[in-house]
Prior knowledge:
With 165 residues, the protein is mainly alpha-helical. It contains six helices and no strands.
Amino acid sequence: MKFAALMSCTAVAALLAQTTVLASAPLRGFAPDLSLLLCVYLGLRAPSPGGALGAFAVGYLQDAFSGNVLGLHAFALSAVFLSVYFAARQLWVENPLSQVFLFFVASVEKSLLVLLLTGLFLSAVAGAASLLTLALWQAVLAALFGPPLLFLLGRLFPDLPEEEA
């Protein structure tokens, strides 16, 4: 219960920062996707139905905060959670190099899912090449900021066993 409350507060703070401070930064598209970073953290440290619900809730909140189509990021982050969960079960992802790779792949997966679903349901994918370039930069930023965020969140929640999360 303590983990869920702290993670909820962390998610709301991250989404507020992402949709206000980072969205108005000079390099607008070149900011880390904090919701994705939290989702990967949940996939690695809270591999449970509660973690999946948390990833869905973070995505749904991101849709609500940013004014996107409801469910777009919720679906993408749920898919990323599942991918990270299954990857962590099969691979050793505790060293920083594998975490960089995991964050990079998760970011590419989310970006492609959002782009695909936007094109499928809204039929409006003008400038897909520039969006793919932006997705690549997002993936690089996720790979750079992901492992330090895992370390910081590990310090924030030090005494919680993975089964309790």
